[in-house]
Amino acid sequence: MSDSFDVIVIGAGPGGYVCAIRAAQLGMKVACVEKRATLGGTCLNVGCIPSKALLQSSEHFEEAKHKLADHGVQVGSVGLDLARMQARKGEVVSSNVKGIEFLFRKHKVTWLKGEGRITAPGKVAVNGEEYAAKHIVIATGSESIPLPGVEVDEKRVVTSTGGLELEEVPGHLVVIGGGYIGLELGSVWRRLGAEVTVVEFLDRLVPGMDGEVGKAFERILGKQGMKFRLKTKVTGAAVGDSGVDLTLEPAAGGEAETLRCDVVLLAIGRRPYVESLGLKEAGVELDERGRVKTDGHFATNVPGIWAIGDVIVGPMLAHKAEEEGVALAEQLAGQQPHVNYGAIPGVVYTWPEVASVGETEEQLKARGQGYRAGKFPFTANGRARAMGDTDGFVKLLADDKTDRLLGAHIIGPDAGTLIAELALAIEFGASAEDVARTSHAHPSLSEAVKEAALAVDGRPLHI
Ligand code: FAD
Ligand code: NAI
């Protein structure tokens, strides 16, 4: 036996590394096992951070090419240096992952480099060495879901990982799946010049989000040039020398057709990753969808083995994983933390952005909850007009009897930042009137939030 710890966390993504740091802050002796060459997990290496770097760079490109002239800014001819854009993305990732190494050193978290395997409760093997721990935390994240008939080679048929690494702008990119990844990376490559077609199985985009927002999102992205094939499934992909031939069929069944493209991005969701962890041997149960089964307090069925993040139930989001990491560490230290799953925002970082927290109108209807809706368009917001960014609206949903905020849905400029106020409002159990009576700076986009709150009571001032 090499060494023993209070806690060994397996996986150094936002769930695992945050759990390790918080446990160390609370005085525990902590190790974190990571098999990737760098810390930070999917999010920092091949997810949140590189995708946001490319979204930012490609938006600058689109602004320079198509938007600045309207503001009276002449930039002459605009060129694309994709190699530089990709190199910058690499620099952003590298500085972030090194930051986690620094934090591990600062908090005295030991990084055990290699693949971790649970050999028995309280024991983890890494590179042939066995370590003991009072508590083992599974934070091994997720991987992209494969589609039968569509073989990924990460060159012509890519997941998000290959989709972040393309060295040339594809002539025609087909995205399978109209969710977070498809629309974010689809936006990146459309802005850089690709023709982009999104093939979605359902009759709408971002299925988990509010229906009205989904419809507006489709219209706005359509106006930007993205094409959609809804209610359609892909049944095969044949890679040839000059492109990929995709076979499409109506989702409900019917005549097949062929769609030719240069690159295919497969983005139909992610699934828990538990390969080579030794869960079966350790007796850790999975649920019907392959997620590590937990009891609502991160405990698996095996005492001393816990799980957090993408590998368990709930939205596959970095900040959800982080909240769970903190809560579990505090729980192991004898505290009584709580994660409010009703107040976790979701943001699609396209432009405009789409952001949501709490329940959708469809969810309220389905559970028979009476509600009042207040909506305010960015066309009536002075700051949005000054920016030249008037697409979208804020929509708030409040209990029809108590006025308590139940859901907030925004499509518009900086929606991902605006939603924070509403996540806080929901966390504090605020009413729509609380938001409406709060002074919001003028002229700011946040005034659209205040106006939507006033609209819940039928008294917006600027429409
Ligand atoms: P992960 O980040 O997946 O980390 C798990 C780690 O465990 C990995 O590094 C893996 O190598 C390691 N590991 C697995 N098994 C072992 C083992 N046996 N031994 C040692 N190490 C192991 N979420 C957001 O909130 N905002 C975003 O903008 C966003 N953008 C995204 C963009 C893309 C393209 C993708 C793919 C995802 C994005 N996500 C985003 C989702 C986010 O990345 C995940 O929700 C988050 O990373 C989950 O964190 P985690 O700690 O559970 O797992
Ligand atoms: P997703 O679940 O967001 O979207 C998948 C889409 O594919 C859905 O619209 C679904 O209906 C569709 N689909 C499923 N099977 C299909 C099929 N056979 N053919 C056509 N369409 C099909 O999953 P995505 O985009 O892969 O992202 C995975 C997860 O990663 C997200 O759910 C999210 O949790 C996380 N993520 C978060 C981001 C953010 O917070 N900004 C950005 C990127 C990813």
From TrEMBL:
Keyword NAD: yes
Organism: Sabulicella glaciei
Lineage: Bacteria, Pseudomonadati, Pseudomonadota, Alphaproteobacteria, Acetobacterales
Family listed: Belongs to the class-I pyridine nucleotide-disulfide oxidoreductase family.
Enzyme Commission identifier(s): 1.8.1.4
Reactions accelerated catalytically: N(6)-[(R)-dihydrolipoyl]-L-lysyl-[protein] + NAD(+) = N(6)-[(R)-lipoyl]-L-lysyl-[protein] + NADH + H(+)
General remark: The active site is a redox-active disulfide bond.
Keyword Cell membrane: no
Domain FAD/NAD(P)-binding: 5-325
UniProt protein name: Dihydrolipoyl dehydrogenase
Taxonomic superkingdom: Bacteria
